[in-house]
Write a structure and sequence with these properties.
The structure is a single chain. By secondary structure, the protein is α/β, with parallel strands linked by helices. It has seven domains: about 110 residues, 3-Layer(aba) Sandwich (MutS, DNA mismatch repair protein, domain I), CATH 3.40.1170.10; about 130 residues, MutS, connector domain (Nucleotidyltransferase, domain 5); about 130 residues, MutS, DNA mismatch repair protein, Chain A, domain 3, CATH 1.10.1420.10; about 100 residues, MutS, DNA mismatch repair protein, Chain A, domain 3 (Orthogonal Bundle); about 210 residues, 3-Layer(aba) Sandwich (Rossmann fold), CATH 3.40.50.300; about 30 residues; about 50 residues. It is about 45% helix and about 15% strand. Strands 13-23-24-25-21-26-27 form a seven-stranded mixed beta sheet, with helices on both faces. Strand 1 and strand 2 form a beta hairpin. Helix 6 crosses helix 7, helix 12 packs across helix 19 and helix 13 crosses helix 14. It is globular and about 125 Å long. The N and C termini lie far apart (about 100 Å).
C-alpha cells in the first residue's frame, strides 16, 4: 500500500499485503466472509473488466485504498471474465472456520488460474484444446511442449525455430512460458501476440527438468517416452511442470504420459501455409476455414482431435490407407454409421470429466454425466466388434466399458443429484444404514413439528399460532398480541416484537436438537460417501482416458464418412509414387458457399517429377487461378489426413511439404510492405524444398514494378525446374504472359490458362483450366465489372491499344509512354468563350434525367446534336 501510514494498516490488510507480495503478477481475489474482495490496482482493474462497483476502504484516512468485490458464490461467473481478459488470478481462501477462530482468520492462495491453466468450464472452449506451452531456445535446436491440463494431454517436440513457430501457430496455445532472458528472442521469432509469462532462468536447466519429469512419471529415465536425449524438449516440458507447481496445481495424476511430436511423421506446413490455406481460421471476417467444412464431429474429443489432424497431415502411406479404409467401410454401411453417430451424441466430455476426477474437482452432477457417457460406450463397442472390418474391430478392442465405475456411480448417486456437494440430497437411499435412519429422524421430526403446531392451536385456541426457525433462537412458537393472554404458563418467552411474542418449550427444544443434529450428520455422511466415490473413480482414470482417445478417433472417422456421403467425395489413392493426378477436383469450401443451384466448375490437375513438374497458369483476375491453387493443396491435405476428397478421382503420391505463396498480406505494423512479406515467404519456400514438395505460387512479383516482377518470377521458375536435387511439383499462377516463353526452354514446364469468353466487349469466366498460355489479362474488363467510372475504363482501353500497337511496331522498345495520346476531356469545350457552346451547356444543365422517358431523351439528344452541327458549319465557313 504505497504511501500508507504503517500504523493505520489493519491486521486484515497486513495479511493481504503479505499474500499479494508472493503473487505480484496476479490479480488477487481475497476471501472476506461471503465475498471475494480486490484492493488497490487490482480493484480498479477488476471493476473495469467485471463492470462492478469500485468503492474505497478507509475513506479519507492515510490508508485509503480502492475496493471492489463480488459474492463468493458468483466466482464461476466472474473468474472466466478475468481469465479471458488475460489476467492471472490468484484465489485466496479462508483456510479455517471463522466461527472457531479468535482474531484474524488464516488465509492462503489455493489456486492460481491463468489463461493456460484452468479447469473452469466457462473459461474453456468445449471443442478446442486449451494449451499451456513452454518454449526454450538452444544453440542448435529449440524445444517446445504443450499441456492441456483439462484433458491431461502432454506433448513435446524439438527442432529448428521455424518448426517451433509452425507448432505454436497450429496448436494456438492460450499461454506461452519462456525464460526471462529469452523474451526478445521469442518476440523476434514469433511476435508479441501470444499471452505469455516469463520464468526465472534456473527453471530452464536440463537437470532440474529431467528430475521433475522422472519424479512425476515415477521412472528412472525418459526412454520409454521416446524423448531421452532431446535436451531442449525436456527443458520445456520441465518448465511446464514447474509452472503447475507454482500455480498450486499439485493433483496432476491424470497427466500420465508425455508423447513426442515427431517432425518426420507429418507433412510440413509452414506458418504461412497454415494461414494462407485458412485451415483453422479465416483470414477475413466473412471467410470460412476448412475445419468448418470438415467438422461434423459430435463429441468434444472428436472436435479437438480433428483440429490436430488437419494441421498435422500424415506422411505414412500405411497409416493413411488405414484411415481411408475405415472411412470407406463406414460409408458403405449406412446403418452402422447412423448407429455410431446416435451413440456418440450421448457421450459428453469424457476427457475433461475424468481429469476433474483426478484433481478432485468433480461435482455430483458431472459424475452422473460420466456414468451416462460410459453407458453409451457399450453399444458402440458391440457394433464395432460385430462389423467385418478389421480396423473397426481393433477400435472396439481398445474400448473399456468400465462396468465397475458405472455400477458404483448409479448405486451411490441419485440420478437428480445437485451440482454442489453442500446442497445435500446426493446419495441414494439404501447406500448407508445410518444415513437412512437420520433422514427418517430429520423428515419425521419436521412432520412432528407440524403436528405439534396443530395440537397447540387446538389446546390453546390460538388460531394464528405458528412454529418458525431462526439462527438465534432455533425453533420457536410465535403468538400475536391479540392472543397473548391465552399463552400457557409453561411456555418460556424469548422475544417481544411489535405485533407478536416468541416462545419456546422444552418439547420444542428436544426435537430441535434431534433434527439439527440429524441434518448436520446427514451432510457429513453424504460428503464422506461422495468422496469415497471419487476415490473409487480415480482407479479408472487411465481406462476412461483411453476410451476418450478412441471415441475421438471414431468420431473423426465418422465425420469424414458423413461428409463424404453428403458432399459426394471420393476415396483417393494415396501411394509412394511421385504423381499427383486429380480428376475433376473441386474446392471443398467454395463449393459449399455457392448459391443454390449453381454448380462448382471442376478441374483436372496432373503433376509429376518427370514430364510435368511445373504448370504455369495464366488468365485474367477473377477467373479462378487462386481457387485452383488452393483446392489442389486442400485436396492433397485432406487425402493425407485420411479424408475422402472433392473430386471424381484422385491419385496422390505422398507429399511431404506443402508451400503456399498466395494472397497479399501487408505487415505494415512491423514496417514490412506487401512485397517484403511476399519475398520473405518465397525465400522460405526456396530454402526448404524437397523432392516431394507441393509448391503453390500466386502472382509472384506483383508488389514491385512490372519488369522487376517478371524477372523475379522468371528466375523462381527456372530455380524450381533446374534445382540440382529436388523437383518440387509446382503450380505457378501469374498475370505475366511473358512467362509462357519458359515452356519452350524448360522441358518439365507446361502452360495452361483459365479460360474466358469475350463477347460484345464483355467477358464470361468459364473457370476451366485448359492447355496453352493466355495472351490477354482482361484487367480493364474486370475494372469495368467492379464499377469503375466509365470514363476511366474508356481511357484505359485507349492507352492499352496504343501500347499494344506500339509493341508490335517497335518490338525492341516496350515502353513508349511518351507517345501515349494525351487525354481528351469531354467538358473542356465548355470552358471556351463560345456563345453556341454556352447554349449547349445551358441545355445540359436544364435536363432532369430522372423524369425523362426514353423517347424524350432521344429527342433531346438529337436537338443537342443539331446545335453542335451548326457550330461545326460555322467553323467550316
Amino acid at each position: 500500500m504505497k504511501g500508507a501510514d504503517k500504523g493505520t494498516v489493519t491486521p486484515l490488510m497486513k495479511q493481504y499485503n503479505a499474500i499479494k507480495a508472493k503473487h505480484p503478477g496476479a490479480l488477487l481475489l481475497f476471501r472476506v466472509g461471503d465475498f471475494y474482495e480486490t484492493f488497490g490496482e487490482d480493484a480498479i482493474k477488476a471493476s473495469k473488466i467485471l463492470d462492478i462497483v469500485l468503492t474505497k476502504r478507509g475513506n479519507g484516512s492515510a490508508s485509503e485504498t480502492a475496493l471492489a468485490g463480488f459474492p463468493h458464490h458468483s466466482l464461476d461467473t466472474y473468474l472466466p471474465k478475468l481469465v479471458r481478459a488475460g489476467e492471472r488470478v490468484a484465489i485466496c481462501d479462508q483456510l479455517e472456520d471463522p466461527k472457531s477462530v479468535k482474531g484474524i482468520v488464516k488465509r492462503g492462495v489455493t489456486e492460481l488460474v491463468t489463461p493456460g491453466v484452468s479447469f473452469n468450464d466457462q473459461v474453456l472452449e468445449r471443442r478446442s484444446n486449451n494449451y499451456l506451452a513452454a518454449v526454450t531456445f538452444g544453440r542448435q535446436e529449440s524445444g517446445v511442449s504443450f499441456l492441456d491440463i483439462s484433458t491431461g494431454e502432454f506433448i513435446t517436440a524439438q527442432g529448428d525455430r521455424n518448426y517451433i513457430g509452425k507448432l505454436l501457430q497450429s496448436l494456438a496455445p492460450a499461454e506461452v512460458l519462456f525464460c526471462k532472458r529469452e523474451k526478445e528472442t521469442f518476440f523476434e521469432n514469433y511476435g508479441p501476440d501470444f499471452r505469455y509469462y516469463a520464468l526465472d532462468e534456473w527453471v530452464f536447466k536440463y537437470d532440474f527438468a529431467y528430475e521433475s519429469l522422472t519424479r512425476h512419471f515415477g521412472t528412472t529415465s525418459l526412454k520409454g517416452y521416446g524423448i531421452e536425449g532431446m535436451q531442449e524438449a525436456i527443458i520445456s516440458a520441465g518448465a511446464i511442470l514447474h509452472y503447475l507447481s507454482e500455480t498450486h496445481h499439485t493433483e496432476i495424476s491424470h497427466i500420465a504420459t508425455i508423447s513426442r511430436l515427431e517432425e518426420d511423421k507429418y507433412v510440413w506446413l509452414d506458418r504461412f501455409t497454415v494461414r494462407n490455406l485458412e485451415l483453422l481460421y479465416p483470414q477475413h471476417q466473412e471467410g470460412v476455414p476448412l475445419i468448418q467444412v470438415l467438422d461434423q464431429t459430435v463429441t468434444p474429443m472428436g472436435a479437438r482431435l480433428l483440429k490436430k489432424w488437419v494441421v498435422l497431415p500424415l506422411k505414412d502411406v500405411a497409416q493413411i490407407r488405414r484411415r481411408l479404409s475405415t472411412v470407406e467401410a463406414l460409408t458403405t454401411s449406412g446403418e452402422l454409421l447412423q448407429e455410431l453417430v446416435h451413440h456418440l451424441k450421448q457421450i459428453t466430455d469424457l476427457e475433461r470429466l475424468i481429469s476433474k476426477v483426478a484433481v478432485r474437482r468433480v461435482n455430483p452432477r458431472e459424475l452422473n454425466q460420466l456414468a451416462a457417457a460410459l453407458d453409451a460406450i457399450a453399444p458402440i463397442q458391440k457394433s464395432l466388434a460385430l462389423s467385418d472390418i478389421a480396423a473397426l474391430q481393433k477400435l472396439a478392442a481398445q474400448l473399456a466399458p468400465c462396468d465397475g465405475l458405472r455400477a458404483e456411480i448409479k448405486k451411490v448417486l441419485r440420478p437428480d443429484a445437485p451440482m454442489l456437494t453442500n446442497q445435500g440430497n446426493m446419495i441414494n437411499d439404501g447406500v448407508d444404514q445410518e444415513l437412512d435412519e437420520l433422514r427418517k429422524i430429520a423428515f419425521s421430526g419436521k412432520d412432528y413439528l407440524a403436528q405439534l403446531q396443530q395440537r397447540e392451536v387446538k389446546n390453546t385456541g390460538i388460531s394464528s399460532l405458528k412454529i418458525a426457525y431462526n439462527k438465534v433462537f432455533g425453533y420457536y412458537l410465535e403468538v400475536t398480541h391479540a392472543h397473548k393472554d391465552k399463552v400457557p404458563a409453561s411456555w418460556i418467552r424469548k422475544q417481544t416484537l411489535v405485533n407478536a411474542e416468541r416462545y419456546i418449550t422444552e418439547e420444542l427444544k428436544t426435537y430441535e436438537e434431534k433434527i439439527l443434529n440429524a441434518e448436520e450428520r446427514i451432510y457429513s455422511i453424504e460428503f464422506g460417501l461422495f468422496n469415497d466415490l471419487v476415490l473409487h473413480a480415480l482407479d479408472f482414470v487411465a481406462q476412461v482416458q483411453q476410451n476418450a482417445r478412441v471415441i475421438g478417433v471414431i468420431d473423426c472417422l465418422s465425420s469424414f464418412a458423413s461428409i463424404a456421403l453428403t458432399q459426394n467425395y471420393v476415396k483417393p489413392d494415396v501411394n509412394d509414387s511421385h504423381v499427383l493426378d486429380i480428376k475433376k477436383g473441386r474446392h471443398p469450401v467454395i463449393e459449399r458457399q455457392l448459391p443454390l443451384g449453381e454448380a462448382y466448375v471442376p478441374n483436372d490437375i496432373y503433376l509429376d517429377n518427370e514430364e510435368q513438374q511445373i504448370i504455369i497458369i495464366t488468365g485474367p483476375n477473377m477467373a479462378g487461378k487462386s481457387a485452383l491453387l488452393r483446392q489442389t493443396a486442400l485436396i492433397v491435405l485432406m487425402a493425407q489426413v485420411g479424408c475422402f476428397v472433392p473430386a471424381e478421382a484422385a491419385t496422390v503420391g505422398i507429399i511431404d511439404k506443402i508451400f503456399t505463396r498466395v494472397g497479399a498480406s501487408d505487415n505494415l505494423s512491423k514496417g514490412e510492405s506487401t512485397f517484403m512479406v511476399e519475398m520473405t515467404e518465397t525465400a522460405s519456400i526456396l530454402n526448404n524444398l524437397s523432392d516431394r514438395s507441393l509448391v503453390l505460387m500466386d502472382e509472384i512479383g506483383r508488389g514491385t514494378s512490372t519488369y522487376d516482377g517478371i524477372s523475379i518470377a522468371w528466375a523462381i521458375v527456372e530455380h524450381l525446374h533446374n534445382h540440382p536435387k529436388f523437383r518440387g511439383k509446382t503450380l505457378f499462377a501469374t498475370h505475366y504472359h511473358e512467362l509462357n516463353q519458359l515452356a519452350e526452354d524448360l522441358p518439365r514446364v507446361k502452360n495452361y490458362n483459365v479460360s474466358v469468353r469475350e463477347a460484345g466487349g464483355k467477358i464470361l469466366f468459364m473457370r476451366k483450366l485448359v492447355e496453352g498460355g493466355s495472351e490477354h489479362s482482361f484487367g480493364i474488363h474486370v475494372a469495368q465489372m467492379a464499377g469503375m467510372p466509365n470514363s476511366v475504363v474508356l481511357r484505359a482501353n485507349e492507352i492499352m491499344h496504343h501500347l499494344e500497337q506500339d509493341k508490335i511496331s517497335h518490338p525492341e522498345q516496350h515502353e513508349q509512354l511518351q507517345t501515349i495520346p494525351k487525354g481528351n476531356f469531354q467538358l473542356n469545350m465548355f470552358e471556351l468563350p463560345d456563345p453556341q457552346l454556352q447554349r449547349v451547356k445551358e441545355a445540359f444543365d436544364k435536363l432532369d434525367i430522372n423524369t425523362m422517358t426514353p423517347v424524350e431523351a432521344l429527342l433531346k439528344l438529337n436537338e443537342l446534336k443539331l446545335l453542335l452541327q451548326e457550330k461545326k458549319k460555322e467553323k467550316v465557313r
